[in-house]
Amino acid sequence: MSDSDIGSALQLVRRTLIENLPLQNLVSGRVYTSHFLDFDNKTTPMPLVILDPRGGDANYSMQLQRVILHIYAYSERSSAQAADVYHKMYTAINGQRLSRSSLDIGGYVYEIERPLTGFNDQIRGWFYRGTFILNSAG
């Protein structure tokens, strides 16, 4: 299997965010690659970041891919805290080259749509959700 699969690409972004100290001072490692099951929604500690793949495309050789991501920043405390988490996540990855020695994949991410904001009644938390493109090769 090629390392240019969606799971490896998400781990590339996740590990980059986990290693970013300003973001980690807020989320303490809570960077996830999917939303939670309903029964977990109200018990999940916040603030947190969720990477949510929405689609994309890959080339014939399966070495290059483009993934469209919604990236969420959640806070149970306030919309302002969700904005702060989003800003720290954004500055950590937007327009940056991404690589990790433990992954045979590299890439870069950029925001294509500024964040939508709101309150999620299911998890009782405020959110900022931006749309990003992740281009990766491996």
Task: Sum this structure up briefly.
With 138 residues, the chain is α+β, with helices and mostly antiparallel strands. The chain has helices spanning 6-18, 21-27, 79-93, and strands at 31-32, 48-58, 64-75, 97-99, 106-120, 125-137. The N and C termini lie close together (11 Å).
Strand order of the largest sheet: 1-2-3-6-5-4
Radius of gyration: 15 Å
Average pLDDT: 89
Distance between the termini: 11 Å
Strand content: 35-45%
SSE blueprint:
Blueprint: H1 6-18, H2 21-27, E1 31-32, E2 48-58, E3 64-75, H3 79-93, E4 97-99, E5 106-120, E6 125-137
Parallel strand pairs: 1-2
Antiparallel strand pairs: 2-3, 3-6, 4-5, 5-6
Helix pairs in contact: 2-3
Structure description:
The protein contains 3 helices and 6 strands. The chain has helices spanning 6-18, 21-27, 79-93, and strands at residues 31-32, 48-58, 64-75, 97-99, 106-120, 125-137. A hairpin with a 4-residue loop joins β5 (106-120) and β6. α2 runs antiparallel to α3. Strands 1-2-3-6-5-4 form a 6-stranded mixed β-sheet. The termini are close together. Helix content is 25%, strand content 41%. With 138 residues, the protein is an alpha+beta fold.
Throw out a few tags for this protein:
138 residues, alpha+beta, six-stranded mixed beta sheet, 6 strands, globular
